[in-house]
Amino acid sequence: MSSNLPFFSIIIPCCDVEPYVRECLDSVLNQPFTGWECIIGIETSKDKTEEIVHEYETKDPRFRAFTGPRSGSCSASRNTGIDMATGEYVIFLDGDDTITEDSLQRLHDKIASRPEADIYPCAMLVHNDMTNKDEPIRDNYPVDFNGELTGPEATVMVYRYHQNPCPMLQLSVFRREFLLANDLKCIHGLRRQDSEFSPRALYLAKRVIPLHEPFYRYRIQSASVGSAARGAGYFHRDWAVILRSLLAFHAKVSVEPDFNTQISQHWARQWIQLIFFFWFFPKNIDKIPRALRVETLELLFANGFNDFNLLITAMPQKTKRVLAWWMRQFIRHPSMRTFSEWFFKCYFFLAGFRRKEEKA
Predict the structure, then answer these.
(1) Are 13 and 94 in contact (CB under 8 A)?
(2) Fewer CB near the last or first residue (10 Å), C or N of the chain?
(3) Is residue 256 within 8 Å of 152, Cβ to Cβ?
(4) Cα angle 213, 205, 139; round to 5
(5) What does pLDDT average to in each consecutive run of 10 residues of the chain (360 residues)?
(6) Residue 273 within any structural domain of the chain
(7) Strand 36-43 versus strand 63-68 pairing type
(8) Same-domain status, 263 and 178
(9) Of the candidates 234, 322, 316, which has an alpha carbon nearest to the alpha carbon of residue 276?
(10) Are residues 190 and 249 in the same domain?
(11) Which residues contact 95 (CB under 8 A, 6 or more apart)?
(12) Within 10 A of 161 (CB to CB), how many other CB atoms are there?
């Protein structure tokens, strides 16, 4: 790679982050390591976010900004940032977060000592503005693991260690050529992009090296996309799109030679359970209008049930296949919807009762 090109491309989506964006950009500008560029996507804001970002463009040419319409999602800015990037490695940073002091130098040195992995998972410092407390450091890999993994191996390890096959984008450093070669982009307009993007990226990686480097400071604050959600079922359309994409991804990769069937089991436990929970957990049945649940389930299964049926066969419990049958009846037959809801309420009640007995 040409020495004239930056080592890191830092991609920052910004929208209505006036109270935080100076701190964010200063955390990049003040890094002793200088081999970076910072690409900032500004969506139409109601505050002075754009004005502040342009100040930094004037201050240092390594900052480059572009503007776009307001979408309520980081996807467009992240995707355009990937296309504009010239660095060898990509870091995703949000406009209300920061990176730690000297972190780019530490990351550079660790990556340079073990170069050309597709993904370098790191660790994250978390501060909750609403409680004014620091939360435990997030790291999706055992801290004593210092080896390297294939993407499928990393997928299994992440699930076993953290039971979360969709770690946040900001937890990792990505090789830019890997993102481009696999056309890894976020779905436009989608919130909770990590849940759809990260499982695909992790599985497709040829080489994954966990660094355990706590380089990112993540802020939980009331105005964020997740925290600011209002109304029952707020994210159901997003989850329908996410799960439809992931079911299709599993169907595609599961026919590859030497596919590890453990991955199907891990994904099934996560994704199938999310479907049952979001659409049929008793509190969600009571709080989310049936019309919205029907509409979003029809969106999830717009391409039919084949991808879902393929993944649910990986579930070891026959109970889950019974749940799937009742779910399909709920979608296909309006006259069965009340019966389906009562079935799920009974199931979750008995499941909760069994868990209490096991703990006793």
Answers:
(1) yes
(2) C
(3) no
(4) 25
(5) 82 94 97 97 93 96 94 91 97 95 97 96 88 85 94 92 71 96 93 90 97 92 54 85 97 95 92 94 95 96 96 83 94 97 94 63
(6) yes
(7) parallel
(8) no
(9) 322
(10) no
(11) 12, 13, 14, 15, 17, 20, 21, 24, 40, 49
(12) 14
Give the CATH number, domain containing residue 143. Answer: 3.90.550.10
238 conformational bin, left if phi > 0, alpha if psi -120 to 50, beta if neither: alpha
Amino acid at 298: E
Do both 250 and 165 map to the same domain? Answer: no
3 located within any domain: no
Tell me how far apart the alpha carbons of residues 102 and 215 are, in angstroms, rounded to a whole number. 9
> 211 and 250 in one domain?
no
Sheet strands (E) in 235-312: none
Q: What is the pLDDT of residue 234?
A: 80
Domain that holds residue 150: 8-220
Helices 236-253 and 273-280: crossing angle in degrees, nearest 10, is 160
Kindly state whether residues 73 and 207 are assigned to the same domain.
Answer: yes
Kindly state whether residues 254 and 179 are assigned to the same domain.
Answer: no
DSSP conformation letters of 130-175: TTTEEEEEE-SS-TT--S-B-HHHHHHHHHHHHS-S---GGGEEEE
Q: Quick check: is 157 in a domain?
A: yes
To which residue do tokens 């992440």 refer? Answer: 158
Number of domains in the chain: 2
Cβ atoms of 115 and 107 within 8 Å: the answer is: no
Please compute, for residue 189, the number of CA atoms within 13 A of its CA located in the half-sphere on the CB side: 4
- Of 189, 220, 251, the last residue of a domain is 220
Q: Locate tokens 């169907």: which residue?
A: 251
Do 114 and 262 have their domain in common?
no
User: 0.70 exceeded by the pTM?
Assistant: yes
Q: Which of 220, 251, 282 is the last residue of a domain?
A: 220
Q: Do 136 and 33 belong to one domain? A: yes
The amino acid sitting at 152 is P
